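Q: Here's a chain of 217 amino acids. Please give me its 3D structure as tokens.
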Amino acid sequence: MANYFIIGGDGKQYGPVTDADVNQWITEGRLNALSQAKGEGDAEFRPLAQFPEFAATLAPQTAAPATITLPLFKAGGNSGRDTVLQQVKGPAVGLMVTAILNMVLALWGLVKLLFFRAGIEQNYAGIPQLNDPQVQHWLHLLNGPIGILENIFGLAVSIVILVGAIKMQSLRSYSLAFTAALLAVIPCLTPCCFLGLPLGIWALVVLNKSEVKAQFE
């Protein structure tokens, strides 16, 4: 006898349950063709309509939708998606704030290096320990090509995090949302790494929940 896991109308995962249980819940109106489920050996959740073994039980619903008798599994309801939207809202907004702060810092870094570079190097010139020619050479690179590339890279990463966070908030493009969370976690990849680290971990924890994965388009 096959076993299945079900995502309820409250967004929570239930199971394992037998195919007989699933058929009974369909008959009672607790599940319908759009309800998310997966077998024990499946990697992802999918609608019950894609399971041939439940086609006969689901067939009468196309003619006369069953009456909802229990709140656990809501036929045609959006409470599961609404619950997941609430779960992703916090970390998604946090990643957006992090991305915007990163972009501001990266842009300011570029402005300083492009327009105030002489003033920066002049400040270094007053420090005796930095008057060594080799040190001056490295400072020139850090405040020149290397610094510019570093800020451009930080800006690009920030844009990816911002776009991924927006997709996460609307439950679209799981891969991009996961990438944004992962980039935020990598230490010192962006200027606001101290802020991105906890928020990125929070986002990854939420994104790894099966009921959250099931709601992404």
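Q: Can you summarize the key feature?
A: DSSP finds nine helices and four strands in the chain.
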